[in-house]
């Protein structure tokens, strides 16, 4: 069974005001001290008294582009139940570390409150700030990246080619960024629009072979516009570090169960695409222009309006499009034992709303109080 790993980016906020706090260095230092304490006590990961995240704390958490953000990465998992438990543990550990340094964590894909982001120290981040200017300084958005194992680059490229039309549906399901710099944006996932400012971001044309994929990456790096292959920000790419396909279209999700849904769907898409490739089925050749429109529509509507149907690239009700996705990956989900979990989670989201809808509901109920929005999201981050 294919393994799945999840990376989540969390926002660090003031416990009283909800304003983003540039505290990532302090939180990471606290994580390193906690890992050192575990080693001195002869305990590691799940053997610790608190039952916290698997692995040493300083291995789980990483700094991000901005000092108001904290990232964690799960271990590769075959079981969605184990992945769900690890996400809960990592979020709880992130919350504990943040509180010990005077802040809180919130699974917010963008800050509802105004903020002047602080770019983290490091040669790479300074290069990005010099190269991209204000786009780097404003790029304080939190995503959820899903890695699914593949057997080879050949299989990976076949997967990347075949999952393209379905990725916008994941953006709609995960949408969790309706506010930006103190303003209502009119979008459900404004993070995805901000993300498109990177020159290498977005959907891709069909590659066909690993050679064409790697040639395209090499040509992009050779322009000097990006620093290296780690800055290939395709919606779906071959990971430069792991034998995985990495899907990067989702907002960080408010409730801890939603990234598990996204991970299960991504594994279902990867497995379905690999089976189609082995069966000799050609990928659907939608243009990049149409895929960009599908991504925009998903960011605008989320689960509250129409989406572009991945098969036809024409407008259709959200429930119809989500149902089409479930039907498309249904056999793979069933084979993985994920079908009931995914069906139930999708029904829950469609009935009660995703993070963007929760944020808007709090905003409307409190008369536009964005500090209350942040406070509610802090409460919901751990479930």
Automatic annotation (TrEMBL):
Keywords associated with the record: ATP-binding, Ligase, Nucleotide-binding
Enzyme Commission (EC) number: 6.3.2.2
Enzyme class name: ligase
Gene Ontology molecular function terms on file: ATP binding; glutamate-cysteine ligase activity
Region called Disordered, residue ranges: 29-55
Example of a GO biological process term: modified amino acid biosynthetic process
Comp. bias intervals (Acidic residues): 37-55
Catalytic reaction equation(s): L-cysteine + L-glutamate + ATP = gamma-L-glutamyl-L-cysteine + ADP + phosphate + H(+)
Key word Aminoacyl-tRNA synthetase present: no
Keyword ATP-binding set for record: yes
Family annotation (InterPro entries): GCL_type2/YbdK_subfam, GCS2, Gln_synth/guanido_kin_cat_dom, YbdK
Role noted for this protein: ATP-dependent carboxylate-amine ligase which exhibits weak glutamate--cysteine ligase activity.
Family: Belongs to the glutamate--cysteine ligase type 2 family. YbdK subfamily.
Protein name as annotated: Putative glutamate--cysteine ligase 2
Organism: Streptomyces longwoodensis
